[in-house]
Amino acid sequence: MNELENGPILAKDLATHEVKTRPKAKNPVRICDTTFRDGHQSTLATRMRTGDMEWMAAEMDRCGFYSMEVWGGATFDVAHRFLGEDPWDRPRKLKKLMPSTPLQMLLRGQNLVAYRNYPDDVVDAFVDQAVEVGIDIFRVFDALNDERNHERAARAIKRCGKHYQGAICYSLTQPRMGGPIYNLEYYLKKALILREMGADSICVKDQAGLISPYDAFDLVKALKENLKIPVNLHTHYTTGQASMSVLKAIEAGVDIVDAALSPFALRSSEPAVEPLVVALYGTNRDTGLDIEQLLKCVQMLEQVAPKYRDFLDSSAMSVIDTGALLHQIPGGMTTNLVAQLRQLNALDKLSEVREETARIRAEFGYPPLVTPTSQIVGAQAVQNVLIGRYKLLSNEAREYLSGGYGKPPSAVAPDIQKSVLRDKVPITGRPADLLGPELEKAKEESKEFARNVQDVLTYVLFPTTGPRFLKYKYGIDRTIPDDWKPPRAPKTLEEVKKEDELIAQVKSGRLKGSERKPSRKKEKAKGNRPSM
Question: Which residues of 130-139 are buried (b: 16+ CB within 10 A; e: fewer)?
């Protein structure tokens, strides 16, 4: 099957002045734009401020995207921890400014937008409040692809009448899709289970950019043949395969693909929207989007982007990590490993830590490396290399090995599990069934600084940094934390301008004391140097 066929007008016959008014394709690819969430999370450590989104929101609303991902993932954490913003305000404000575009969020199943499982009363309340602030589509995933961790969130989303998109984390145990775990049958089985749970659409969530073009074609083709609901491909550019994989998925009939505006695309982010739009001109999958409107938004984004340049990784010349084709560690996880090793003055151990990561992943039952499993496996790899194998185990690793995060895709190494659990029996049921309600207790604990249920949820999810923000918000403690200042927070455009002027002066030698006179030895060497 090849769905990429001629459209109502061939690309060779499409004159420049006809692009805006070109006829609509029969089966257009729909675009989920990730610029305001995963785009800057993947490239700029999630530092984009809500005010910069508001400034261009009306123009983004005119683009005609299927949806815009604006919330979830790390945005809740970073907004209150580093930007001094109320996380709940962002979707509320954007909903008013973008009434024509459905707003989407990424929900970590029973982990919500944090790093542990929460009881059902917290999950219910969070979904209710997310709907209240404007979220229309919930992309729900679980780091272990344990569908039981979708159950409560899915039920709450459906009760609110919103779109539940069941996401399957894409992972591998070998260079390409296949092998005993992550094969075509595995993904198809998971998709069918999520559909039976009420999923309105299915997302293949390739957080590490591992899906190869022909595997994308085969997987999407199988999903389309077996499902009667839309299929969405989310993949990252980390390994350099994303645009090729997206095109092959489109050929196979994928309904929706994720992409970001070019300033926040590529690298470890998603493919860029603009070239994809042009590539599909003249086909029956033409997106129908206006390239001029997209470029208008790109120019607006470029105007604010300098604020965030300090968060852009410039440690290598290459904008992709082809090493990930071999070690399969996502870009964000590598960044965390480098940061941990640098703090411990052990950066020379990076290659050993990568090798140990692969060993631990196998011993832990081959979990997909995505939040929070990527943090658990990565931290354990660092400890194993520096201290000795399993001499020290984090609380999160103990919880994982006890079944507290759910059922891994494959069995955990029995010797390691036994050494951790000793005589305890591992959890085999849905982990959240063992958790008692927390919301009422949290209301009592946070009554000094929480004024509503959204504040209470901020406290429940982030009991250390949440109260700090809420006390500032309500004037209880107006001390501005260092976390809210550069280098942890973005600079202003005025600060960036002054920095650029200073650099220009140093380079030109106009800054007092910056001009250096060459030594006599250097002058002599220069005189003997052959001309080029």
Answer: bbebbbbbbb
* HSE toward the beta carbon, residue 217, CA cutoff 13 A: 12
Q: Copy the structure tokens of residue 512.
A: 């007092």
CA nearest neighbour of 209 among 261, 183, 246: 246
Q: What is the DSSP letter of 106?
A: E
DSSP run (H or E) holding 140: strand 137-140
From residue 333, alpha-carbon distances to 71, 142, 328, 340, 346 in Å are: 21, 17, 10, 11, 17
CA distances from 21 to 30, 277, 297 (A): 18, 14, 20
What is the amino acid identity at position 460? V
| Residue 203 CB contacts under 8 Å (≥ 6 apart), including other chains | 139, 141, 165, 166, 167, 168, 231, 232, 233, 234
Query: Which DSSP letter does residue 283 get?
Result: B
Average pLDDT of the segment spanning 135-147: 98
Cβ(82)–Cβ(484) below 8 Å:
yes
Per-residue pLDDT, 279: 97
pLDDT digits 0-9 by tens, 345-377? 999 999 999 999 999 999 999 999 998 999 999
**For the segment 4-29, what is each residue's pLDDT rounded down to a tens digit?**
889 989 999 999 999 999 999 999 99
Strand partners, 201: 165
d(CA 296, CA 298): 5
Q: Where are the alpha helices (DSSP H) in 73-179?
A: 75-81, 89-97, 120-132, 151-159
In which band, very low, low, confident or very high, does the pLDDT at 100 lie, cut at 50, 70 and 90? very high
- The answer to whether 435 and 117 have CB atoms below 8 angstroms apart is yes
CA 172 to chain centre: 18
Q: What is the three-class DSSP state of 272?
A: strand
**How high is the mean pLDDT of the chain?**
93
Q: From CA 190, how far away is CA 169, in angstroms rounded?
A: 10
In the predicted structure, residue 82 carries a pLDDT above the cut 60 = yes
Cα 182 to Cα 190: distance, rounded to the nearest angstrom: 11
Could you give the angle at the alpha carbon of 272 between the alpha carbons of 269 and 278, nearest 5°?
165
Residue 146 and residue 190 in contact, taking contact as beta carbons nearer than 8 Å:
no
Name the more confident of 418 and 298: 298
Residue 517 has pLDDT above 60, yes or no: no
Long-range pairs for 525-528 at CB < 8 Å and ≥24 separation? none
| Dist CA 34 CA 56 (whole Å) | 14
pLDDT for 315: 77
Question: pLDDT value at position 314?
Answer: 82
